[in-house]
Amino acid sequence: MKKQPIGVFDSGLGGLTILDALRRELPREDLIYFGDTANVPYGSKSKVAVTKFSLAIGRFLQSQGVKLIVVACNTASAQALPQLRRQLSVPVMGVIEPGAEKAARTTRNGHIAVLGTEGTVKSGAYVKALLKRRPQARVFQQACPLFVPLVEENWTAKPAAELIAREYLAPVCQSGADTVILGCTHYPVLKPVLAKILGPQITLVDSASAVAEAVQRFLTRRGQAAAGGRGRVTVFASDDPARFKRLAASLLAEQIATVKLKKLDL
Ligand code: DGL
Q1: Looking at the predicted structure, is the pLDDT value of residue 116 above 90?
Q2: Within 10 A of 241 (CB to CB), how many other CB atoms are there?
Q3: Considering the chain, what percentage of its residues have pLDDT values greater than 70?
Q4: What is the distance in angstroms between the CA of the first residue and the CA of the last residue of the chain?
Q5: What's the rounded mean pLDDT across residues 98-118?
Q6: Ligand 1 mean position to 229 CA, how many Å?
Q7: Taking the C-alpha atoms of 60, 65, 71 and 77 in order, what is their torsion angle to the nearest 10 degrees?
Q8: Does the pLDDT at position 83 exceed 80?
Q9: Which atom belonging to ligand 1 lies closest to the Cα atom of 43?
Q10: Number of C-alpha atoms within 13 angstroms, CB side, residue 84?
Q11: What is the pLDDT of residues 183-202, one digit of tens each?
């Protein structure tokens, strides 16, 4: 078990922010990443579609002998986690619970805002996870659909990014939240511009590091953490692996050697 890889998947590139955190926190682990570039974006798709894609990826990762699957995609975590856990025989961890846990511990005034895709916001998964931990919490949600293309275009330092972020964040600033969850794989890349608009009194909770810590606790508890050596990273994409590799450079600290094409059996 210790030597088996950890499977990580996302609708596309964004989950590399989670992979990056896992590499930093758990450098000994072998990681298999699957980016569903053929079906991205998940954020604007139905729960039925997101669940179908997630199950196909889960089955593929399971066939690769992974010891744990990390659903790096917030939308898939919000919409498909129960089905994945029911239908797969390996443990499955999502990003919502670790992110909510961290935010519930961070807030001082009990007002939390969640930024996410339309799918994540509609599911109410963060609200549920936060209220489970802090029943008196006030949770404000804001969908930010234009953030994903901004990140994928590498436009995060352009004036357009700040203009768009100001529109989305105006109601967040008025909500009284002292803690804001970056509830989407891509949003940590926008952290500098979001922090500038929200100001120093608001804490940004990035679920990537929370997930990496949760994975570490999980493996240690089960005695399944890899021992010794530096782990390998294997990357699959369901479409255009060359484009994936090119864009990955802006999200991942290390270079990916190859991205293999793997079409999903839907
Ligand atoms: N990975 C998605 C998420 O974290 C964002 C991109 C998409 O819409 O597929 O919600």
Answers
A1: yes
A2: 20
A3: 100
A4: 28
A5: 97
A6: 32
A7: 70
A8: yes
A9: 8
A10: 30
A11: 999 999 999 999 999 999 99
Q: How many angstroms does the Cα of residue 185 sit away from the middle of ligand 1?
A: 6
Instruction: Report which of residues 36 and 265 the model is more confident about.
Output: 36
CA–CA separation, 34 and 57 (whole Å): 7
Give residue 159's identity as a one-letter amino acid code.
Answer: P
Residue in this structure with the two tokens 């810590």, named with its chain if needed: 213
Tokens standing for residue 54: 């997630």
Taking alpha carbons only, the member of 16, 82, 18 closest to residue 55 is 82
pLDDT of residue 21: 92
pLDDT(53) > 80: yes
**Residue 62 identity (one-letter amino acid):** Q
Where do we find the tokens 């529109």?
167
Clarify whether 173 is annotated catalytic: no
At 28, is the secondary structure helix, strand, or coil? Answer: coil
The reported pLDDT for the residue numbered 133 is 97
The minimum-distance atom of ligand 1 relative to the CA of 44 is 8
- Rounded to two decimals, what is the model's pTM? 0.94
* Site residues for ligand 1, CB cut-off 6 Å: 10-12, 14, 40-43, 73-75, 117, 120, 148, 184-186
Q: Which of 73, 80, 164, 235 is catalytic?
A: 73
Structure tokens of 133? 């931990």
pLDDT tens digits for 207-247? 888 899 999 999 999 999 998 889 999 999 999 999 999 88
Q: Indicate which atom in ligand 1 lies nearest the CA of residue 95.
A: 4
CA of 1 to the centre of ligand 1 (A): 30
- What span, in angstroms and rounded, lies between the C-alpha atoms of 256 and 216? 23
Whether 73 is catalytic: yes
